From TrEMBL:
Protein's recorded name: 5-formyltetrahydrofolate cyclo-ligase
Entry similarity comment: Belongs to the 5-formyltetrahydrofolate cyclo-ligase family.
Presence of keyword Flavoprotein: no
GO biological process: folic acid-containing compound biosynthetic process; tetrahydrofolate interconversion
Chain residues that bind substrate: 57, 63
Gene3D superfamilies cross-referenced by the UniProt entry: NagB/RpiA/CoA transferase-like
Sequence positions that bind ATP: 11-15, 139-147
Organism: Agaricus bisporus var. burnettii (strain JB137-S8 / ATCC MYA-4627 / FGSC 10392) (White button mushroom)
Amino acid sequence: MSTIQSLKIQKRALRKAIGSKLSAIPTQSIQEQSYSIIQHLGSFPAFSRSKSLSCYLSMPSGEVDTSSLVSEILDSGRTLFVPKITNRSGEMEFLKLYGKADLASLPNGVWGIKEPDSDWQELDLILLPAVAFDRNFARLGHGKGYYDRFITKYQTTFHKKPLLENYPFFRLVGLALREQLLEKERIPIDKHDWSMDFIVTPDEVLTNSSPVSFDASENAG
C-alpha cells in the first residue's frame, strides 16, 4: 500500500469517528460554543484589522455556527466573500456578498449567486471550517480538497497567502468546537495539506509560530 493510500484510509477513519461525535452534539452546546468563539474572534487583532475576508456559511449541525458572525461582518462595512463550489472535481471560488439582502437571497444548498469582483484576491484572512483540527495546526477537511486547492491557487497566482500588512502571521484561521480540537499529531497530513496559522476555540486562541512554507511546489494539487 502506498503512503498516499495509507493517509487516505487514516483520514477516512478519523472523519467517520469524529463525525459520529459531532452529530451527537446538542444544538444548545453548538450555539454556546459558537458564541464564545465569535467573542474571542472579535478581540483578535487579525480579525479586527481585516478589511476583506472570507467566512463559510455553516451547515445546520456539527460545526461552528457562523450566521451571527456573517451578519456582524456585513454590518461592519467590511468586504465579505463566501465559498462557492464550482464543480465536483474540487474547485472552489469565493463570491462577494453585498449585504444582508444578498445573503437572504441565497437559495438553500447554494453558497452564492453573485459573480466575484476583480479584487477578490485581496483577502486579509480566511475563516475555515473542518471536521477537526489538531494542536499541530493540521486541518482535517471533508475529503474533497476544496480549501487546499483554493489556497494553493491563491498562493501560486499572487505569491502569498492572505496577509495583513505589517502583521507577522498569515491569515488562515480555523474555527473549532471543543469536540473538533484534537491533541498534537492526531491528523495525518501530506504535502497538499495547508496548516492553520490560528485556531479559535470556545476556550482559547492557538497561534502557530511556524507557518507553512510559501513554496507552491510543496502544496500543489
